[in-house]
From TrEMBL:
UniProt-recorded name of the protein: Glycerol-3-phosphate regulon repressor
Listed InterPro entries: Carb_Metab_HTH_regulators, DeoR-like_C, DeoR_HTH, NagB/RpiA_transferase-like, Tscrpt_reg_HTH_DeoR_CS, WH-like_DNA-bd_sf, WH_DNA-bd_sf
This protein's record includes keyword Transcription: yes
Gene: glpR_2
Keywords for the protein's UniProt record, in alphabetical order: DNA-binding, Repressor, Transcription, Transcription regulation
Organism the protein comes from: Roseovarius tolerans
GO MF term list: DNA binding; DNA-binding transcription factor activity
Transcription regulation listed as a keyword: yes
Amino acid sequence: MASKKIRRRDLIQQVVQEQGGVSVGALAEMFGVSMQTIRRDLDILCDGDNLHRSHGRIELAEGRRNTPFDQRAGTNLVGKRAIASAAAALIPNGATLFISIGSTALSVARALHRRKELTVVTNNLSVAMALSEEISNRIIVPGGEIRLPDRDFVGEEVVEFFGRYRAEYAIFGTAGIGAEGELLEFHEAEVRATYRMWRNAQTSVLVIDRSKFGRLAPAVGGTITQIDHVICDRPPAEPFSHLVEQLGDRITFAEEAE
């Protein structure tokens, strides 16, 4: 089998694991192939116990369908707490900030619970709820449909939404980081929303754990070396040491700093 097919099928499984399910049309658009090509991939991928087809979608099998967002939020808790604490230390009372989707960004929001008079622009409903406990905060979210189970807003409307605001800080994660530092996402709309967010902020803050280095996703947007501050739990594996060198004092390893 061609390596391109193997990589695409591996990525399809990863997308389904992340999101719980995805349509054939969305996969075709994501990978730039025909729906017939995706259907052939699904014939192979669904020949087992992990995935199944349902009404033009591929989904996790019933017995394996835990809430993907809650699964991610419950992993590497020590590392995420350290990352969140380091990121929150950058944010003063009264700041205006963007906060993106993702479980690590949510950890940062929770670490900001003692901050007051924040203006938070976010497409992450869980972030909005976490910061709504402080009544001096102002929280701005887009309209539209909430994506479940992740409890966030995605799509072109979100790109336009972030384009209407400016902030002092942008706090965001990424699905993966390529060999040359590419910031990778599962959807082009997520790439455009993240790009608009950090371009409209005075200071960009990328929050990731070391597992994101080398993790594949199909959509590319910017590189890690363009970011003002990168906060990671621990140093990545040796093949990515050149990126650490390029970042210099712009990267913080939160577990070492504690």
